[in-house]
Write a structure and sequence with these properties.
Shape: elongated
CATH architecture of the largest domain: 3-Layer(aba) Sandwich
Number of helices: 15
Number of domains: 4
Low-confidence stretches: 1-6, 155-161, 204-208
Strand order of the largest sheet: 7-8-6-9-10-11
Helix content: 40-55%
Strand content: 15-25%
CATH superfamily of the largest domain: P-loop containing nucleotide triphosphate hydrolases
């Protein structure tokens, strides 16, 4: 069969890669919005992280996905021939599919079809280590699979324990809907309990009042490396997508002796599945409850500008876009010239750093210190009982670190914004 007949790319031959796992044919849709190259390159990387071997890709320019088969009928026929030519065992799409699209494609192509969401879920299932992470991933998997149960058992059984079937505490796809719904309800209760415990643990910290800094950003931007550089910790770091799924919290002692809390959060990705956002809600609370967000960007990534937009969209989706944010352009030591589309260094909320070499880290620490100080200096005051309203206001607008009742009133140590601190300064002398 002449290769010239096909509008497709031989990925392995083009990149000189050997087969590593199940062979997969990638399908993609170019909607003409300029995002196709980034989305498809990312899908290829996602496939490799899910232990699939992308052997070829087929794409089509359409204004919208075909409601029945994702791509047009001619491209699907072409995909079936390429699938046979390469003896590929799986088909993956760079966009989410509806259950009916997935079933029709599997029937026509006579091969398992997985979409972008399912590949991401599979990577999360393999990487989850903590009980919380495993529960969150399993919930997202089951909610994704429930509407897809009908007609998929035979196709997925061909994959054995591979893509789409891996997962902690796995409920088999062939299980009836009642059992899966019961399992989903149980997992949701577990996640609510995990979130409740997390909030209880965080409650005392709110009273003590550490300044909380959350590292957010696109997956594999260097957040964990930056956390290690700032805190001196040795958390797990690897050059792969979603190397870190569990929120990791470390302390950072600032030059003036003030201590702040740093939290490394799960990496974002373009079109992060809604089911994952919902399942990881308790983990993402670390970003929502932070006093400052450090948006870590891989400045060496030619697609960095688009990924910045994806992160900001996700922050808006989880309700964290109103939190003060500093953009940290990481890996500047390997960049000769920054992309003009990236935020300007003239902006005081944009810093150039290298988490690997330490370049720019002192300046970043200084910014964190300044933000923590602006959030509220500590003050010790001795309030008479008729000024108890100030204590209530501290609970609302500041952080009460210590309080001690005496015969004359109440002694407090608090962190407060400037205007409130000014009112407390009239009570700083010990009675």
């Amino acid at each position: 069969m002449p290769q010239e007949r096909f509008d497709w790319i031989d990925i392995r031959a083009e990149k000189g890669l050997a087969q590593v796992a199940e062979r997969v044919l990638l399908l993609g849709l170019d909607l003409g919005d300029g995002s196709f190259d980034r989305t498809f390159a990312e899908m290829e990387e996602l496939a490799r992280n899910a232990w699939l071997d992308p052997v070829a890709m087929i794409s089509q320019k359409l204004s919208r996905p075909d409601p029945k088969t994702y791509l047009g009928s001619g491209k699907i026929a072409e995909a079936k021939e390429v699938l046979a030519m390469y003896e590929a065992t799986v088909v993956a799409t760079s966009d989410p599919l509806t259950p009916s699209q997935q079933r029709r494609l599997e029937k026509i192509l006579e091969a398992p079809v997985v979409d972008r969401t399912e590949v991401i879920l599979d990577i999360f299932a393999h990487r989850a280590q903590s009980r919380e992470g495993k529960v969150q991933v399993e919930l997202a998997q089951l909610e994704y699979r429930l509407p897809r149960l009908a007609g998929r058992g035979e196709m997925l059984s061909r994959l054995g324990g591979g893509i789409g079937t891996r997962g902690p505490g796995e409920t088999k796809l062939e299980a009836d809907r009642r059992r899966i719904r019961s399992r989903i309800a149980k997992l949701k209760r577990d996640i609510e309990e995990i979130g409740r415990r997390r909030r209880l643990e965080r409650g005392p910290r709110d009273d003590v009042g550490p300044f909380r800094v959350a590292l957010v950003g696109y997956t594999n931007a260097g957040k964990s490396t930056l956390l290690n550089r700032l805190s001196g910790a040795e958390t797990y770091v690897d050059d792969m997508l979603f190397a870190t799924l569990d929120a990791t919290t470390k302390a950072l002692e600032l030059p003036g002796g003030r201590r702040v809390v740093l939290t490394d959060t799960v990496g974002f990705i373009d079109r992060l599945p809604t089911s994952l956002i919902a399942a990881f809600s308790s983990t993402l609370e670390e970003a929502r409850d932070a006093d400052l967000l450090l948006h870590v960007v891989d400045a060496s990534d030619p697609q960095a500008a688009g990924k910045i937009s994806s992160v900001l969209e996700t922050l808006e989706e989880i309700g964290a876009l109103d939190i003060p944010l500093v953009t940290v352009l990481n890996k500047c030591d390997v960049v000769d010239r920054l992309d003009g589309a990236l935020p300007s260094a003239d902006d005081p909320d944009v810093l150039h750093v290298s988490a690997r070499s330490g370049e720019g880290i002192p300046e970043l620490v200084a910014v964190i210190d300044k933000r923590a100080e602006a959030e509220g200096r500590q003050i010790e005051a001795y309030l008479p009982f008729d000024q108890m309203s100030l204590v209530s206001e501290l609970h609302e607008r500041g952080s009460l670190i210590e309080q001690e009742y005496t015969d004359a009133g109440i002694r407090i140590v608090a962190r407060a914004p400037e205007d409130l601190r000014g009112r407390l300064e009239g009570y700083t002398e010990r009675p």
